Amino acid sequence: MELPMRDSVAIFTEASPMAVFDVGAQLESVRLQDPAQAEKDRTVILLKTDSLRLIFRSFSEGASLPTHKAPGPITVQVLDGQIEFTAGTRTTPVRKGEVLALESGVPHSVKALSDSAILITVAVRPQNP
């Protein structure tokens, strides 16, 4: 299943080495979306550098991400709703306000147990040439 993608990627520069993101506004825009779009999941890449990714993702109840691996350790913070996170053979529910951490390269998948929104942080490990 292909999810709609909307990037608002921050870029660090010498003059602007900092970025601030209004994650609450992202969450509110999901809550206020047109009812005709209510079944649409959304991914917003907030930050993408050589070593760090910050991604906002919303899911409708029952939506899922198939098993995949991340190029570094990750955290998943549930901003709204509840997800089911499977890593290897372990499945655990993660609720609003909870943060899950996972080591690099571990196969994992996500399923929304209710309409949900998460904030994903990936600490990208450098690739060996």
Give a quick set of tags describing it.
1 helix, 129 residues, mainly beta, flat, single chain, six-stranded mixed β-sheet, Jelly Rolls
Q: Report on the biggest sheet.
A: 6 strands, mixed
First-to-last CA distance:
32 Å
Name of the top-level CATH class: Mainly Beta
Tell me roughly what share of residues is in helical segments.
under 10%
Strands in their spatial order, largest beta sheet: 1-2-3-10-5-8
Output the CATH topology: Jelly Rolls
Supply the CATH superfamily name. Answer: Jelly Rolls
Shape assignment: flat
Mean pLDDT: 87
> What is the number of helical segments per DSSP (H or I, 4+ residues)?
1
* Secondary-structure-derived class: mainly beta
Oligomer: single chain
Model description:
With 129 residues, the chain is mainly beta. The chain has a single domain (5-123), classed as Jelly Rolls. Helix content is 7%, strand content 48%. The chain has 1 helix and 10 strands. It has one helix at 23-31; strands spanning 5-10, 42-48, 52-59, 64-68, 74-80, 82-87, 90-95, 99-102, 108-112, 116-123. A 6-stranded mixed sheet has the order 1-2-3-10-5-8, covered by helices on one side. Strands 4-9-6-7 form a 4-stranded antiparallel sheet, with no helix packed on it. Strand 1, helix 1 (23-31) and strand 2 (42-48) form a beta-alpha-beta unit. The termini are far apart. Residues 1-7 have low confidence and may be disordered.
